[in-house]
Amino acid sequence: MGLKIHSLAEIPDSVSKSYYLYILDYYNWNEPIGNTLRGCFDKIAEFASKNDSVVIQGIVVNSHLNYLFG
């Protein structure tokens, strides 16, 4: 499963997966690892969906800050 969300708070408490991968994108910097993760998100999400996992990517520039400090 792949999710693009504003905040981790949007995930219901009843959801349970073996692994969660939250991809933080610091201000959409143009750097190799960020570009690769953004470019491969759908492939990573497909792999996660077949392995009781979820990959999560924030869609707001400061989404990770909202979670950490909210």
Structure write-up:
The chain has 70 residues and is an alpha/beta fold. The chain has one domain. It is built from three helices and three strands. A three-stranded parallel sheet has the order 1-3-2. The longest helix has 9 residues, at 41-49. The chain is flat and about 35 Å long. It starts with a strand and ends with a helix.
Task: Tag the structure with descriptive keywords.
three-stranded parallel sheet; 34% helix; 70 residues; 3 strands; alpha/beta
Number of domains: 1
Distance between the termini: 25 Å
Radius of gyration: 12 Å
How much of the sequence lies in strands comes to 15-25%
What number is the mean pLDDT? Answer: 77
**What strand order characterises the main sheet?**
1-3-2
Structural class, from secondary structure content? Answer: alpha/beta
The count of helical stretches stands at 3
Could you estimate the helical fraction of the residues in percent?
Answer: 25-40%
Question: Got a strand count?
Answer: 3
The helix-strand sequence is: EEHHEH
Instruction: Please summarize the sheet with the most strands.
Output: 3 strands, parallel
pLDDT < 50 runs, ≥5 residues: none
Shape: flat
Nutshell version of this structure?
With 70 residues, the chain is an alpha/beta fold. Helix content is 34%, strand content 21%. It contains three helices and three strands, in the order ββααβα.
